[in-house]
Amino acid sequence: MKVRKFLLHTGLIITILISIIFSALIWFNPAMLQHDSKETTNTGESTTSVSKRTLSDIFLPLQATYNVNDAQYQLPSSEDYLIGKVWKVMKKWNSVSTSMKSYKNETDYLTFLNQNNVLLLNYNSPITVKIFNKVFSQKIKGIQSFKFNRIMIPTEGSNYIYLMNDQSRKVCKVVVNNAKSIKKIQTYLKSNSVENNKVEIDYYLLNNKIVNFYVNSVQLSKYSYLYNKTNISSYVSELLNPSGQTSISTKLQKNKTIYLDGSDNRLTLNDTTGAVQYENYSALDYYDEASSGKIRTQRLNYYTHLTESLNQLNKIGVAPDNLRFDEVNSEDGTVTYRSYIAGFPIIGDDNYGTYKIKLMSTGGKEYNFSLNSLQVSVPSSQYKEDLPSTYTVLRELENKGYALSKIKDIRVAYKWQKNQSSSLVIDMIPTYYVYTDGRWSELDDLLSTN
């Protein structure tokens, strides 16, 4: 009798354990961990979330720096940590008037930039006042086409802010009604979480671009995420056959699959990396001039170029919550959106975490992105990566024979790396990236190949 009871209890316990294990497998499958969305598209194998992103989602500042006590610091700046809080305060301000000033040289501009007791919200590439008005709920008039890449906020109770353009060295002073709410920003800046995580920097002029240089070595955390690979069929139907009436042909080429709709649309998938390129070189929105035979072209102003690139991003159908406007290529106008982790971008080959939108003056367009996307963070070791100061990095590059005149930018960013223990997990490793020869390259790659 006792043996029978023992076996009964043992069998019950085993059954419960098996149920828990299978439930865990179901709940922690990355496909189950998609964010809620406004609508869904059936791909046949998986469901792709379609979440339309707005200007306020995408065009928030990327980074916060703080000048105090004759030193400059980079602050932790994820959306819901500091920048998001400051943004909510600024939305309640009312712009009153503006005035413009130009600085004659870099020295005078850097002196202004380095002044004490100011918080700076920074972009990598400029936005316009018109976009600022929409993102920050302001009504600045008369200068809506003015481009800037920094917002300077005095923290000692002044009733004005500055919109700064590093390239042109122009500064727009905006008088606002903010005397009371600035105290909230002061509280954020004095919090322990900001004080304990700020990192000292210099504003360094590198080939006519002001770059944050870390004064000392820094320690940054490694993160791990479950990831998902979206089925290519959702993009084929969305980009090549939205009406469901077009015949799609498929062509195999080495490690690539090419989808064609018989007209001007082409979708190319790298079967190994998951990188996707969509091309549409049609000029259907334009016409041939009868007198000259030339195709009429349209030059978009900067504001329209940025907002139209966002419209095209939404057409792709997937835009992660941590995606931000990152930069504009001055040569071909490509607008790049990147996923950000703890205030740092994901950079690397194969467009992981990246969407590139190229709009052409003849009406054509090109998208580059990846099928792979991060889902939710998973517990990982408290591993941190030690990174040298940026000055040390610059010396290492010089010693390896790289000409400083060819180095256009240096950033700390996260690289995408497969986890050795689980095929469902991606590790995000902090490292330096260097912009040279028209592309971003990881520092270790540059030092090992030259």
Please characterize this protein's 3D structure.
By secondary structure, the protein is an alpha+beta fold. The chain has three domains: 58-215, no CATH class; 221-225 and 378-449, no CATH class; 232-370, TATA-Binding Protein, CATH 3.30.310.160. The chain is built from eleven helices and 27 strands. It has helices at residues 2-27, 55-58, 79-90, 106-113, 129-135, 182-189, 192-195, 232-240, 302-316, 390-399, 443-449, and strands spanning 39-42, 47-50, 63-68, 71-75, 95-102, 118-128, 147-154, 160-165, 170-176, 199-206, 209-214, 218-221, 223-229, 249-253, 256-260, 265-270, 275-280, 323-328, 335-341, 344-345, 354-359, 365-370, 372-377, 384-387, 407-418, 425-436, 439-442. A nine-stranded antiparallel beta sheet has the order 5-9-8-7-6-3-4-10-11. Strands 14, 15, 16, 17, 18, 19, 20, 21 and 22 form a nine-stranded antiparallel beta sheet that branches. A hairpin with a 2-residue loop joins strand 19 (335-341) and strand 20. The protein is globular and about 65 Å long. The model is unreliable at 1-9, 11-49 and 284-291 (pLDDT under 50).
Low-confidence stretches: 1-9, 11-49, 284-291
User: Reading side by side through the largest sheet, how are the strands ordered?
Assistant: 5-9-8-7-6-3-4-10-11
Mean pLDDT value: 84
Largest sheet: 9 strands, antiparallel
Transmembrane segments: 7-28
Pfam families: YycH (PF07435)
Organism: Liquorilactobacillus mali KCTC 3596 = DSM 20444
InterPro entries: YycH (IPR009996)
